[in-house]
TrEMBL record, chain A:
<dbReference type="GO" id="GO:0055085">
    <property type="term" value="P:transmembrane transport"/>
</dbReference>
<dbReference type="InterPro" id="IPR035906">
    <property type="entry name" value="MetI-like_sf"/>
</dbReference>
<protein>
    <submittedName>
        <fullName>Multiple sugar transport system permease protein</fullName>
    </submittedName>
</protein>
<feature type="transmembrane region" description="Helical">
    <location>
        <begin position="159"/>
        <end position="178"/>
    </location>
</feature>
<keyword id="KW-0812">Transmembrane</keyword>
<keyword id="KW-1003">Cell membrane</keyword>
<dbReference type="GO" id="GO:0005886">
    <property type="term" value="C:plasma membrane"/>
</dbReference>
<keyword id="KW-0472">Membrane</keyword>
<feature type="transmembrane region" description="Helical">
    <location>
        <begin position="103"/>
        <end position="123"/>
    </location>
</feature>
UniProtKB/TrEMBL annotation, chain B:
<feature type="transmembrane region" description="Helical">
    <location>
        <begin position="12"/>
        <end position="34"/>
    </location>
</feature>
<comment type="similarity">
    <text>Belongs to the binding-protein-dependent transport system permease family. MalFG subfamily.</text>
</comment>
<feature type="transmembrane region" description="Helical">
    <location>
        <begin position="107"/>
        <end position="130"/>
    </location>
</feature>
<keyword id="KW-0813">Transport</keyword>
<feature type="transmembrane region" description="Helical">
    <location>
        <begin position="67"/>
        <end position="87"/>
    </location>
</feature>
<dbReference type="InterPro" id="IPR050901">
    <property type="entry name" value="BP-dep_ABC_trans_perm"/>
</dbReference>
<keyword id="KW-0472">Membrane</keyword>
<comment type="function">
    <text>Part of the ABC transporter complex MalEFGK involved in maltose/maltodextrin import. Probably responsible for the translocation of the substrate across the membrane.</text>
</comment>
<feature type="domain" description="ABC transmembrane type-1">
    <location>
        <begin position="68"/>
        <end position="260"/>
    </location>
</feature>
Length: 294, 274
C-alpha cells in the first residue's frame, strides 16, 4: 500500500477553490432567491412554495422564449454542422492556398460576438445598411428590406449569423476527426472501384460519427448560452419577439427587476446544461475508451 | 492543367460564398469607418474620398482610450492570474497519478460548460454584496476564475506531451523537485504557456455579459461595453465612429488569432484525447 502523497492535492487546490467559488456561490444565491419571496431590492422574505417557478410556467413570454430557444439552438447547430462537414472535407484535401483558406474560415472565431453583432446591426440597417445597397446593386431586390424591424426577418438573420460564427469551431472539430482517418482506407476503396460519394458514405461518415456527436453536444451548449448576438442586434425585440431564454433572463433580472423569476430561469437553464454536459462527458469517455481499446 | 491546380480552383470556388460572408463584416467596418460623416447614411458603398481623420476623431468622441486601457488592464491581470494558478494544477495533473484526478478533470469540464450568463444574476448579487459593482478588479477576478478550466485543460494537455526523461535525469543528479520544475520543466513548456496565455487574453478581451452587468459607469467600461453603449438605446448613432472603433478594437486580436489558431486547434485536440 502506497502512502497518499499530499503534494498533487496542494497543487490543484488554488485552481479548484477559484473555479468552485464563481460557480457554487452564485448557484447557492440563485437557489435562495428562486425559492424565497424577494422584493425589488433583493431582500429575502421567506420560502414561497416555488411560486417563482409556477409564475414562470404561467408566463406566455417565458413559454415563447423556450420555444424560440429550441428553434434557435436546433437551427444554428444543424446549420453549422451542415456547412462545416463539406468545409472541413475541402480544407482537409490538398490544394493551393489551403493554409490561407484555413485562416479565413477560422477568422470569425477571433472577433468578439459583440463586435460582430454591432457590425451586422449596422449592415442590416433598413435605410443605409450595406446589405440592402449591396443586394440592390446586384439587382436582387428593388426596395429596401427592414431586416431588424420584425421578427420574421430579424430572427432568421440572427440564426444565420449564429451559424456563421459557429462554423470555425465546428470545422476545427471535424478537421481533427478527418486527420485521424488513415489515408490507405481511401486508397483501398478506390482500388475496389468505390466512387467519391460511396467513400464518403462508407468510410468518412462512420469514422466521423464520434466527432459529429461531440460537435452537436458542445455546440448545443454554446449556442443555448449565446447572448451577445441577439442582445446587441435586437435586444429580444421588437416586443419580445426575438427573445430566447438568456435574453429573457437578462430582462427579468436587470430590466424589470424580477429577481426571483430570473433566478428560476437560471436554475432551469442550469439543470438543462448539466444534463447536456453529462451527455457530453459520457460521449467523450466512450470515445476515449474506444481509442484505448484500438 | 495539373490535377492539383484543377482541385484548387474547385476548392476555392466552393469556399467562395463563405469567404465573402467572412470578409463582408470587415468590409462594412472599414468602408464605413473611412466615410465622411455626410456620406455615412447614404446608401452607396464607396466614399468619394477616404476620411482617415475619422480614426483620430473617433478616439476622442468615443472615449476609446479609457476603454482600451481598461480592457488591457483587465485582460492582462486576468490572464496572469489564471496562468499562475493553473501551472501547478496542470503540472500535478500531468505528472502525478492521484486519486480524484479523473473527477477533477470532469469538474473542470463542467465548469467550462457553464456560461456566465446562466449565473449572472447570482454573480451580480454576490459581487454587489461586497460593494464591488463598477470595480474593474472584481471583473478581473471573475474573468480569472471563469478561465481557470480552460487554462488548466490546455496546459495539462501540452504538459503531458513533454517527456519525463529530462526531469528524471535532473533528479538523479540530485536536483529537488522544485529546482527541476523551475530549471528544467518550465523552460520546456514556455511556448505552451505563452499560447495558452494569449488565448485567455483574447477570451477576456472579447467578454461581454459579465462586463455589461458589473460595470455601470463609463469610466470603468471595457471596449465591448463601450462600443455597445454607443449603439444601444440611442436615437442617433455616429456609425462612422462606431465602425472605426470596432475596427481598431478587432483588428489586432484577429491578426493575433489568425497567426496562432493552429496551436489552439492542436491544444484542444490534445486535451480531448489525453
Amino acid at each position: 500500500m502506497r502512502r497518499r502523497n499530499p503534494l498533487p492535492y496542494l497543487l490543484i487546490l488554488p485552481s479548484f477553490l477559484l473555479a468552485a467559488a464563481v460557480i457554487i456561490w452564485p448557484v447557492y444565491d440563485l437557489v435562495q432567491i428562486a425559492s424565497n419571496d424577494v422584493n425589488r431590492f433583493g431582500q429575502l422574505r421567506g420560502f414561497n412554495d416555488f411560486a417563482n417557478f409556477t409564475a414562470l410556467f404561467a408566463d406566455p413570454n417565458f413559454l415563447a422564449a423556450v420555444g424560440r430557444t429550441a428553434l434557435w439552438t436546433v437551427a444554428v447547430v444543424a446549420g453549422a454542422i451542415l456547412v462545416s462537414v463539406p468545409v472541413a472535407l475541402i480544407l482537409n484535401s490538398d490544394f493551393y492556398g489551403r493554409d490561407i483558406a484555413r485562416v479565413i474560415v477560422m477568422l470569425p472565431w477571433a472577433v468578439s460576438l459583440t463586435m460582430t453583432a454591432i457590425v451586422w446591426r449596422w449592415a442590416l440597417n433598413g435605410e443605409s445598411g450595406m446589405l440592402n445597397s449591396g443586394l440592390r446593386a446586384l439587382g436582387l431586390i428593388d426596395t429596401n428590406i427592414q431586416w431588424l424591424a420584425s421578427a420574421s426577418t430579424a430572427f432568421p438573420m440572427e440564426i444565420a449569423i449564429g451559424i456563421l460564427v459557429t462554423i470555425p469551431f465546428t470545422t476545427t472539430i471535424f478537421l481533427g476527426g478527418l486527420s485521424s482517418i488513415p489515408g490507405d482506407l481511401y486508397e483501398a476503396a478506390s482500388l475496389e472501384g468505390a466512387s467519391g460519394w460511396q467513400q464518403f458514405r462508407e468510410i468518412t461518415l462512420p469514422l466521423l460519427r464520434p466527432f459529429l456527436n461531440i460537435a452537436i453536444v458542445l455546440n448545443t451548449i454554446y449556442v443555448f448560452n449565446s447572448f451577445p448576438i441577439i442582445w446587441v442586434m435586437t435586444q429580444g425585440g421588437p416586443a419580445n419577439s426575438t427573445d430566447i431564454l438568456v435574453t429573457h433572463l437578462y430582462k427579468l433580472g436587470f430590466r424589470i427587476g424580477q429577481l426571483g423569476q430570473a433566478s428560476a430561469v437560471s436554475l432551469v437553464m442550469f439543470a438543462l446544461l448539466l444534463f447536456f454536459t453529462i451527455v457530453y462527458v459520457r460521449l467523450a469517455m466512450r470515445e476515449e475508451r474506444a481509442h484505448q481499446g484500438a | 492543367m495539373s490535377k492539383k491546380l484543377k482541385r484548387s480552383i474547385i476548392a476555392w470556388l466552393l469556399l467562395a460564398p463563405l469567404v465573402v460572408l467572412v470578409f463582408f463584416p470587415f468590409a462594412v467596418m472599414f468602408i464605413t469607418a473611412i466615410k465622411p460623416q455626410t456620406e455615412v447614411l447614404s446608401p452607396h458603398w464607396w466614399p468619394h474620398e477616404p476620411r482617415w481623420r475619422n480614426f483620430i476623431d473617433m478616439w476622442a468622441a468615443t472615449n476609446f482610450g479609457q476603454a482600451l486601457w481598461n480592457s488591457v488592464v483587465v485582460s492582462t491581470f486576468a490572464t496572469l492570474g489564471a496562468i499562475v494558478i493553473s501551472i501547478p494544477s496542470a503540472y500535478a495533473m500531468s505528472r502525478f497519478r492521484f486519486r480524484g484526478r479523473e473527477a477533477y478533470r470532469q469538474f473542470l469540464l463542467i465548469t467550462q460548460m457553464l456560461s456566465p450568463i446562466v449565473l449572472v444574476v447570482g454573480l451580480f448579487r454576490v459581487i454587489a454584496s461586497f460593494g464591488l459593482i463598477d470595480n474593474i478588479g472584481a471583473v478581473t477576478f471573475v474573468y480569472m476564475a471563469f478561465n481557470i478550466a480552460f487554462t488548466v485543460w490546455m496546459l495539462q494537455s501540452y504538459f503531458a506531451t513533454v517527456p519525463k526523461d529530462l526531469e528524471e535525469a535532473a533528479w538523479i543528479e540530485g536536483a529537488s523537485r522544485f529546482q527541476t520544475l523551475v530549471k528544467v520543466f518550465l523552460p520546456l513548456v514556455t511556448p505552451a504557456i505563452a499560447v495558452t496565455a494569449i488565448f485567455t487574453f483574447i477570451n477576456a478581451w472579447n467578454e461581454f455579459v459579465i462586463a455589461l452587468t458589473l460595470l455601470r459607469r463609463q469610466e470603468s467600461y471595457t471596449l465591448p461595453i463601450q462600443v455597445f453603449s454607443l449603439v444601444a438605446g440611442r436615437y442617433t448613432v455616429e456609425w462612422h465612429h462606431v465602425m472605426a472603433a470596432t475596427f481598431v478594437a478587432t483588428l489586432p486580436v484577429a491578426v493575433l488569432f489568425a497567426w496562432l489558431q493552429r496551436y489552439l486547434v492542436r491544444g484542444l485536440a490534445l486535451g480531448a484525447v489525453k
